[in-house]
């Protein structure tokens, strides 16, 4: 039995590009012996008081902790347990306002308060495979007027690759707002191409992830 | 009468470097005719459900909105009003886990849902003066092992300068964790220098901000 962890950070359910691409990846990876754990931060974000609660809770005697401290410490252990119990990871996170998902940042901040993931310790999930899906409303490539305005993907990769030490493959999809933005009308054919390419890439990566887990389970 | 807006995002009260530097800036700017509005996100973060509530609330008839939608829309208007009513701005925001403050990101996301600050509209506070204080536990300069790991300051500047169109002066303070981190012991003299320089710069910028508001009020 292998276990796949999926994190969603889109605040949309219907019409979310990251969710659609992640759905295809999961469908391509699916096997009878693969269980899936879902942490849906878009639908159920962590409380904004959890992080400080988990940071300061340990300095307070257990019977004097505030409700926020108790909740923060409990949630930190829960999300750390979820990662530790999984063999592979899918992170489906949009770029929002040229920056990171606030809910994914809150999740990382909280995770790193757990002693098992504390800065300075070796990542307990180092070397495990992960797929990062990033959807962006606009275009941020070298030719785009807003080249350099994607302040999210670099940090996502930093945390997953350099801090958590996962083996990450990145699946990006740009121009997702073209269909609903009149000023982006001329970009719609490119947007459709981008989406089809990201979906195909997700399906490939679902199959490669599944194959890798099969080999690991047989080893 | 001029009005100064101060935003704090440090989750610490005692021992916070951004709060200390901002205190000095405010003290140097203080005048009898200057009122100060404080939005303390570190002490009282916005609820993590507010943003999605404010995004989706307008698509729901007013009498059918969820409590999160009502709260999100109310908070968005409140924080937009605070900015509009101010003549100058201080943002005191740490770098956390190589990235942005989750609470500051939540504040920006929510702010931009208010129609007056909506993407595509001209910023209603364009040209007003601001000071951005960023504290960082480590060092991120060209010689540092983690050069390039500051994924926060670039986004902070992007939002304040390019999106809100404020005239921003940046006050950075690096190595703030040196005093409490044994492995950083050799960096403590540099850390003390950095702090003294940031404090002095904050006092200068408090005076220049105060002078600018005086001239504007007299004009």
Structure description:
Chains A, B: This is FMN-dependent NADH-azoreductase. Chains A, B: Pfam families: Flavodoxin_2. Chains A, B: Residues 5-163 form the Flavodoxin-like fold domain. 2 copies of one chain form a homodimer. With 219 residues, the first copy, chain A, is α/β, with parallel strands linked by helices. Chain A has a single domain, classed as Rossmann fold. Helices cover 41% and strands 16% of the residues of chain A. The first copy, chain A, has helices at residues 17-29, 50-56, 67-84, 102-111, 153-163, 188-218; strands at 2-8, 34-40, 88-94, 129-135, 167-173. A 5-stranded parallel beta sheet of chain A has the order 2-1-3-4-5, with helices on both faces. In chain A, helix 1 (17-29) links the parallel strand 1 and strand 2 (34-40). The longest helix of chain A has 31 residues, at 188-218. Chain A starts with a strand and ends with a helix. Chain A binds chain B through residues 11, 42, 45-49, 51-52, 55-56, 96-100, 102-103, 105-106, 108-109, 112, 149, 151, 154-155, 158-159, 162-163, and chain B through 11, 42, 45-49, 51-52, 55-56, 96-100, 102-103, 105-106, 108-109, 112, 149, 151, 154-155, 158-159, 162-163.
